[in-house]
């Protein structure tokens, strides 16, 4: 988590790529791939020699994975994949991807499974590239699967229909990781605003001397400290092999909101300069929106926490 925070502080785009390679995409190969597949895909991805990505999202389904329309149909010793994925980080330049498909379209979440698809497989191509608000250091877009045939061993699982269960295995880590990314963005904005407040002079004094500017730093530092404690506590639980179901969701919920508040205040401290592309605050302001989506939106996290806390009544 410290590592994720640090690399995100430097570049969100770079962090996205590293995290895809280290966790999101390769996890399923690590768990279910053949030894040969691990050497061909996972090891080079972790070394940074190949680019990996994961494909959940579609045009009509993001949070609602049960609505996945991309299908995988068994044909002899092969699986045939058809569908289009959207919002895929590094999609156009990936060497391989793990793709969430339904093998049983009527079954919702119980029909979901992961498959490995590698660059160069006939029928596998990239479609439109999205012109994004932030995270502009990565290419994000559409991946198209048109009768893509993969061997039976590219099915990444023990038995059919457990794909969503495997997502659950890394969901807590993904949520804590996203909280750490939020901290990284907030810290970059905070550190730069602090430096600016010491240099920028108004009414004959550096603006850092004014109480209202100091109050902003008091609030920002408190938000970040609270976010860090929640994030590190959830990470600590995972390190101990304990469940962090609620704690990971709380960390993501709190840290990503804290991130929005910190970048907003940092932007105000920069005055009009925050509105110029020459200065950094606008970049943090735009990048901060990214952490609100992956690993569960605020609404999905609150639904989840509400269910965990109240249960069925
Ligand atoms: C920069 C970037 C990179 C991304 N990279 C990837 C990637 O590499 N691979 C990938 O698969 N995806 C990727 N995504 C997509 C991301 O995972 C999705 O945006 C996310 O899952 C949310 O889905 P959605 O955007 O379709 O929103 P939706 O699920 O359609 O939600 C729309 C709105 O409705 C709300 N909502 C939905 N359901 C409920 C409910 N039950 N109750 C209350 N409110 C609800 C949501 O909170 C949200 O406010 C990326 C997104 C971004 C912005």
Explain what the structure shows.
By secondary structure, the protein is α+β, with helices and mostly antiparallel strands. It has 2 domains: 11-161, Butyryl-CoA Dehydrogenase, subunit A, domain 2 (Beta Barrel); 165-310, Butyryl-CoA Dehydrogenase, subunit A, domain 3, CATH 1.20.140.10. It contains 9 helices and 10 strands. The strands form 3 sheets. A 4-stranded mixed beta sheet has the order 1-4-5-8. Strands 2-3-7-6 form a 4-stranded antiparallel beta sheet, covered by helices on one side. A two-stranded antiparallel sheet has the order 9-10. A hairpin with a 2-residue loop joins strand 2 and strand 3. It is elongated, with a radius of gyration of 21 Å. The mean pLDDT is 96. The structure holds flavin-adenine dinucleotide.
Quick synopsis:
The protein is an alpha+beta fold and 313 residues long. 49% of the residues lie in helices and 19% in strands. Flavin-adenine dinucleotide binds next to strand 1, strand 3 and helix 9.
